[in-house]
């Protein structure tokens, strides 16, 4: 997830559940083509994150071929094409979910990528542009073009993230194609995902992971803040190791704010966490939160 699922966060999720498959933030194939060195930094991953899929977006055959080579050289386990992103900038460039309006181009991209790499190729998309009427046809087209898996976010382009995801059209598509189908949208944790699984082959958890990698526990349970601290510290340390203390502490702030929710006085602590500029300060504030939430009796 753009801005969230970088290498340190993916490693944290794998600590919670080593059996998950991780996916990079979406990365521009054009960017890889023109500035591979810079984009390889964005695609960086640690061996602990395997199996790991690189997610790319774009609409240009040449840049997809170049991206395939970079992903192979970097040692990724698969390549996913983003055909679901609704961001204005992405849609305006006819990338992301805009490709659902040009299915022939979408299928050509899948075919080009599948021919350019031995890695498994998957596609992540939405139900459709304005409705799900062409979802099954899209799934069949993707399969015929060489996709090895398809992941469906159960909302259309026009629906905001807070409307409930629809699963029926995804189950129906699965009945009509042979490749694995994963569902996504509004899943709270593994148990919730299993309830929604139906005839699908798996599911993706997105926003529920923010500040809560414990959604990946096989059996959900209450986690005390004291128990969270070593994980939050590790997350902070890994980000700082990767990006340096100045950038790392800036980038960890949004995660810290997400971790610090759901207890009395959280708001005050969050206003401190958005200003941390060293690992030491992070640990100090976390320690104070732990004492406030679960007082230590001497
Ligand atoms: C901040 C943010 C960034 C996202 N970035 C990506 C991305 O890079 N690639 C992608 O396939 N989906 C991305 N998504 C969409 C999610 O992967 C997911 O499909 C969507 O949030 C619905 O699932 P959820 O309800 O579990 O969050 C993003 C969503 C959000 C809110």
Give your account of this protein's structure.
By secondary structure, the chain is an alpha/beta fold. The protein folds into two domains: 7-216, Aldolase class I (TIM Barrel); 225-293, Non-ribosomal Peptide Synthetase Peptidyl Carrier Protein, Chain A (Orthogonal Bundle). Helices cover 47% and strands 11% of the residues. The chain contains twelve helices and eight strands. The chain has helices at residues 7-16, 29-34, 36-42, 61-74, 88-92, 103-116, 135-145, 168-176, 190-196, 225-259, 266-273, 279-293; strands at residues 22-23, 27-28, 52-57, 78-83, 121-126, 149-153, 181-184, 202-204. Strands 1, 2, 3, 4, 5, 6, 7 and 8 form an eight-stranded parallel beta sheet that branches. Helix 1 packs antiparallel against helix 10 and helix 6 runs parallel beside helix 7. It is globular, with a radius of gyration of 20 Å. The model has no long low-confidence stretch (mean pLDDT 96). The structure holds flavin mononucleotide.
């Amino acid at each position: 997830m753009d801005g969230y699922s970088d290498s340190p966060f993916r490693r944290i999720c794998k600590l919670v559940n080593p059996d998950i498959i991780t996916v990079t933030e979406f990365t521009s194939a054009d960017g890889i083509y023109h500035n591979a060195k810079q984009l390889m930094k964005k695609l960086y991953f640690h061996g602990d994150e395997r199996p790991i899929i690189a997610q790319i977006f774009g609409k240009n055959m040449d840049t997809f071929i170049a991206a395939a080579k970079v992903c192979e050289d970097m040692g990724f386990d698969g390549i996913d094409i983003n055909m679901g992103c609704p961001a204005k900038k992405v849609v305006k460039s006819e990338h992301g979910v805009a490709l659902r309006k040009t299915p022939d181009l979408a299928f050509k991209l899948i075919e080009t990528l599948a021919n350019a790499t031995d890695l498994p190729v998957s596609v992540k998309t939405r139900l459709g542009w304005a409705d799900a009427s062409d979802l099954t046809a899209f799934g069949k087209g993707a399969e015929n073009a060489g996709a090895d898996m398809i992941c469906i976010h159960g909302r259309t382009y026009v629906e905001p993230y807070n409307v409930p995801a629809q699963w029926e059209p995804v189950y129906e598509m699965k009945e009509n194609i042979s490749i694995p189908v994963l569902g996504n949208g509004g899943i709270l944790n593994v148990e919730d995902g299993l309830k929604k699984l139906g005839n699908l082959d798996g599911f993706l958890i997105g926003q529920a992971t923010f500040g809560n990698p414990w959604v990946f526990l096989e059996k959900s349970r209450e986690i005390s803040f004291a128990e969270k601290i070593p994980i939050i510290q590790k997350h902070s340390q890994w980000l700082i190791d990767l990006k340096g203390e100045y950038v790392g502490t800036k980038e960890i702030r949004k995660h810290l704010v997400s971790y610090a929710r759901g207890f009395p006085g959280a708001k005050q602590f969050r206003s401190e966490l958005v200003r941390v500029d060293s690992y030491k300060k992070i640990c100090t504030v976390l320690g104070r939160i732990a004492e406030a939430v679960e007082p230590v009796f001497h």
